[in-house]
Amino acid sequence: MPGFFLKKIGYALMIAAMVASVLAGCASKGNNQAVMDMSKMSMDPIKVELTWSPAGASANQEIIFKAEVTQGGDVVDDADEVLFEIVNDNDSSKKLELKGELDEEGKYTAAGTLEEAGMYHVTSHVTARTQHSMPTKPLTVKP
After folding, report:
1. I need a surface site. Which of 34, 38, 63, 65 has the fewest CB within 10 A?
2. Mean pLDDT on 39-48
3. CA distance linking residue 100 with residue 88, whole number of Å
C-alpha cells in the first residue's frame, strides 16, 4: 500500500514539474516572437492609394505601380509586405506579380511591363501593422 501512495506522489510531482517548466518557458526573456511591438499599433485602418504611371499604358511599355500606405493620416514606412498583382481579365493565368519597395517619397513602387493589350485588374496586397488591405482597380493597356 505505501508503494501505491508513493507512485501517486511521484506522478503529481512529475506533472507539477512539467507545468512549472512550461510556465517558465513562456515567461523567459529569450527570443519570443509572440511579443509584438505595440508602439506603432493603432485602431485606425491602414489606407492604400493605388496608382500607376503612365495612366494610359501601352503594351510593352514599362509601368510604375505605386501604393501610398497611410494610417491615421501618417505615412506607413514599415509595411511587412507590398505585392502588386496584375491579372489579365480574359486569361487569369496571364498575371504579373511584383514586389513593392519603399521609395524616397514614402511610397511603395514596382516596375513591370505587360506584353499584351487588354483589360487587367491591379491589386495591391499590403500587410502592415497587423492589418491587410487589397484594393483593386481596372487597368486598360492599349496596343
Report:
1. 34
2. 82
3. 20
- Give the containing element (helix H, strand E) for 100: none
State how far the Cα of 62 lies from the Cα of 86, in Å rounded to an integer. Answer: 13
Q: How far apart are CA 63 and CA 83, in angstroms?
A: 15
Delimit the domains of the chain by residue range: 45-141
Cβ-in-10-Å burial (0-12, 13-18, 19+) of 131 comes to middle
Output the pTM of the full model. 0.71
- Mention the CATH class of domain 45-141: mainly beta
Tell me what the mean pLDDT of segment 123-139 comes to: 97
Rounded distance, CA 90 to CA 118, Å? 8
Q: How far apart are CA 67 and CA 87, in angstroms?
A: 17
